[in-house]
Design a protein that fits this description.
By secondary structure, the chain is of the alpha+beta class.
Length: 184
């Protein structure tokens, strides 16, 4: 009720303050929070910028960071380079970042990527259905899924993904490789 009143009185400014407060709260709590909800991750079946289908299930066997973002979201812009650095640190491991863009057109996303280049897959949630299925209301929002496909951590807001503590947390989810067997 109070949030509706704030939105009615102050409009977008109140919404922006609420988003900023949530991001600061997540940062103050140390970032990644243990996921306490159902462990089954909602499906993601979207298309990349090149029009190729990509499903979360295609990444089974990997630890995956699913990041919901938009190019108009300043904290999203700020955290993308650290996500790329994390991906580079974990190169060769069974790890991937899947960035789910919220309702933006391909030209806008490509223009963004010229300014903030990343090599991880980006898919387009053109109608917002995937974000709704994941109950995402604040950007950025990220979820960590283990190699068995179970939700393990959540982050509402931004973090330095290349931080050694974050890397350590994610490495702990990686399956140990058996001698003579290649990593997935």
């Amino acid at each position: 009720m109070a949030a509706r009143l704030l939105l009615g009185v102050f409009g977008r400014h109140a919404a922006a303050l609420l988003v900023a407060a949530a991001a600061l709260a997540a940062h103050a709590q140390g970032g990644l929070q243990v996921w306490t909800g159902p462990t089954e991750a909602p499906a993601i079946q979207l298309r990349t910028l090149d029009g190729q289908p990509l499903a979360l299930s295609d990444l089974q066997g990997k630890v995956v960071v699913v990041n919901f973002w938009a190019s108009w979201c300043e904290p999203c812009i700020d955290e993308m380079p650290s996500m790329q650095r994390l991906r580079e640190k974990l190169a060769g491991e069974a790890f991937e970042i899947l960035a789910v863009n919220f309702q933006e057109g391909e030209p806008r996303i490509r223009a963004f990527l010229k300014k903030v280049p990343v090599a991880f897959p980006i898919v387009r949630d053109t109608d917002g259905g995937v974000a709704r299925a994941w109950k995402v209301r604040i950007f950025p929002s990220s979820f960590v899924i283990d190699a068995d496909g179970a939700l393990r951590y959540v982050l509402v807001g931004t973090i330095d993904w290349a931080n050694p503590e974050v890397e350590k947390t994610l490495r702990a989810l990686l399956r140990p490789s058996r001698p003579g067997s290649p990593r997935r």
